[in-house]
C-alpha cells in the first residue's frame, strides 16, 4: 500500500488548499457523519506519522471556509470539533484561515473596518459561548483582538506619518 511520490505531492496540494468542508454534498449541505469519519481518520493518521500539529493546523485553516448562518455561526458539529480541548492547533489554523480570507485591504487611518470586524467576531463569540462552545468562542475573540490591534497599529502609523510630514 505504498503511495508514489507524485501521488503524495498531489494529495498534499489538495489537502493544504482545501476550502470545502469534508462531508459537504453538491448542494452545500453537510453530512456530519462523513465529516467526523474524515476528521477522525486524519487525526489518527497524523498521530501515527507524528504530524499532529501541522495536520490539525491545516484542518483548522480549511474549516475556516465553513458556511455561516445568519448569526455568523458555523455548523454545530464543526464548532464542537473546534471546541475540543485537544484541538488547540486546529483553532490556530482556523484563526489564521479566517484572517487570511480577508485578503489585501486598503488601510483606513481611523481603523473603522478593523473595528467593525472586531465587533462582528466578538458578537459571534457571544453566540458561540451561549451554546456552550467556550474554546471556540475564545478563538473568535482572538480574531477580534487581532483586528483591534491592527486598527490601533494603523491609527498609530498614520499619526506618525502625519507628524513626520508636518516636521518637513
Features:
168 residues, mainly alpha, 7 helices, 69% helix
Shape: globular
Which residues sit in consecutive blocks of at least 5 with pLDDT less than 50?
A: none
Number of strands: 0
CA(first)-CA(last) distance: 70 Å
Largest beta-sheet characterization: none
Q: State mean pLDDT (0 to 100 scale).
A: 91
User: What order do the helices and strands follow?
Assistant: HHHHHHH
What's the helix count? Answer: 7
- How large is the share of residues in beta strands? under 5%
What percent of the residues sit in helical stretches (DSSP H or I)?
A: 55-70%
Report the structural category: mainly alpha
Radius of gyration: 19 Å
Q: Would you mind describing this structure in some detail?
A:
With 168 residues, the protein is mostly helical. The protein has 7 helices and no strands. Helix 2 packs antiparallel against helix 3, helix 3 packs across helix 5 and helix 4 crosses helix 7. It is globular. The termini are far apart. The model has no long low-confidence stretch (mean pLDDT 91).
Task: Please render the helix and strand layout as text.
Blueprint: H1 5-16, H2 32-48, H3 52-63, H4 76-83, H5 88-101, H6 112-130, H7 134-167
